[in-house]
Amino acid sequence: MMPETITHYRACNLCEAICGLKIEVRGKEILSIKGDPDDPLSRGHICPKAVALKDIYEDPDRLRKPVRRTAGGWQEISWEEAYAEVVAGLTGVQEKYGKDAVGVYLGNPTVHNWGSMLYGPEFLRLLQTKKRFSATSADQLPHHLAAYFMYGHYMAIPIPDVDRTHYMLILGANPLVSNGSLMTAPGMDKRLKAIQRRGGQVVVLDPRLTETAKMADRHHFIRPGKDVYFLLAFVHTLFEENLLDLKQLESYTSGVEQVAALVRSYAPERVATVTGVSAAAIRQLVREFAAAPSAVCYGRMGLSTQEFGGLCQWLIQVVNILTGNLDRPGGAMFALPAFDLVAQQVSKGKRGSFGRWKSRIRGIPEFGGELPVAELAEEMLSPGEGQIKALVTSAGNPVLSTPNGRLLDKALSDLDFMVSIDIYINETTRHANIILPPATGLETDHYDMIFHIFAVRNTARYSPALFERGEDQRYDWEIFRELALQMGGKPSAFSPKQMLAYALPFGPYASEGITLDYLQQHPHGLDLGPLQVCLPERLFTPDRKINLIPEVFTAALAKLEIPAEEPEDSGTLLLIGRRQLRSNNSWMHNSYRLVKGGDRCTVLINPSDAEVRGISQGQEVEVSSAVGKVVLAAVLSEEMMPGVVSIPHGWGHARSGISLSVAAEHPGVSVNDLTDNQKIDELSGNAVFSGIPIEVVRI
What we know:
The strands form nine sheets. The protein has a seven-stranded mixed β-sheet, with helices on one face. It has a six-stranded mixed barrel with strand order 25-29-26-28-27-30. By secondary structure, the chain is of the alpha/beta class. 30% of the residues lie in helices and 18% in strands. Among the domains are: 158-337 and 536-558, Dimethylsulfoxide Reductase, domain 2; 573-698, Barwin-like endoglucanases, CATH 2.40.40. β10 (201-205), α7 and β11 (218-220) form a beta-alpha-beta unit. It is built from 24 helices and 30 strands. α3 runs parallel beside α18, α8 (227-240) packs across α11 (279-291) and α8 packs parallel to α13 (309-322).
């Protein structure tokens, strides 16, 4: 008898958008994956990545049992044997070289999985190492730095209230493709069009005419890495033309007069040549922004991953505050999630940290207990006390996702011991001695602990597992718990679901009866309403005031100089990244439906730059930087600002020893074979991926 067809509802946990899904299943066969029109946040929106959940579940390359690397290849072993070898390997290195001889790298999918979020910290605590790294310092660390110093908690990041704003100024972001990013906003095409329908405007500044820029009311090219000068001129003009309006913020904001002094020398006329944005255009944007009924300035990866990323994210907050658009409908607001992680941490005295220790090689301060990932390879390759001799990676592929991947590749091959908690043998985990694969995706229940904090609307949704995990499989939280137990720890005996059931009745919606049982009765999720005004109650600074001028930012600004203009015939181009809808960092390229079609790992170059170099459409070119070179096809495009080229992130699957059959057929090249691990934002320690000087020559 054929099994009946069952419709299952859940949230997708592959990216920040957490779109609601409607999945039809017959037995263990997935018949279809569609958007859930009744999800209060995504409203039926779905992107191609969600359909790949089927591919991950069925992927023959996905590991389901622990494996050990041997001279004859990978060998399956029991969980008991794997745990014992991991604990022996890590403790053995620490007994010989000290606690800091073990390093940890946590990849981006960690924050998309509540099991890792809840149980990973106890394991890390038991390691007692200061050598902790994550994808944070290759991505959004400047956001956290600004939030920590200005609002008192590293996760207190204001979110654009896109559904009510009348003017959205977007810098270095492509939300039409990313569905937000530190702005969980599925279906951004509809949300942006709604701004325009209500008489508002969307303006984009970017070195590429992105998908978002194409639908915007206006787009301005801006030189990579020079956004800081635009933002300084923007704030300068607010003061010069008396366009400030702090509204209710004035009573609990300190440092306004000092900001005026800091930006006095950055008139639009002085920065126009450097930024590529005319003084007239800058002044027009400032006047429009200040005059709008509500407005919000938003900047993301292109701003954070540049030389002055920390200053940029600070200045974006300053713009929103000085125009009275912080904590205001249609401006930048704070979400209030049902599982209120920020409030829970504050109640335990945890707001974040900065500078408790510094890195061994370059002396860069820790942030949130982590060091900049740009230093990871050096920490392995540089002899001396504290050298990393063993490494733990979880849900990450830093060989492809962190700067100077070839150097890191070499460093990994020299380790005494390495363990990876991962479902694939990829460019990084191929170096591991042991790989522990967690059950994932549709085999796990899910509640998003992180991205409700950044959502443009307050919602809550619990997703039960679609399939039971196999008898030989383990959830990630079971893996972390068992490792902690074998290291002498006392991890919680409760499952993530039990923890959620305990926490919700103490959350901000307890009076409305929001419990786990109630969530389970609403499989499409709950709409908890639009973002609400919440300041100054939601400020966590010691004096309960917004600090406009944290010392770390003003000190960094004091070192800033307006650079001399590059000669036009220098031959040097600047490299930026490129977000793609069917890519999710490096780990989704083993899904055929996401990589099929034409080659997407290409270098976009302006026709004028191509003509000077004798490059024709589709021709292979060599792109070289200070640390490496790659060969790929050139695509001539007016999308690119002259002097700027773009290569997408996450490719580079031609390395030997990986077990990704589909990805190996669509290898592309790694843009991080060009990025330089010596280039960081000195303020935050974040890696620099945007504005890398490169040369392009035809082959």
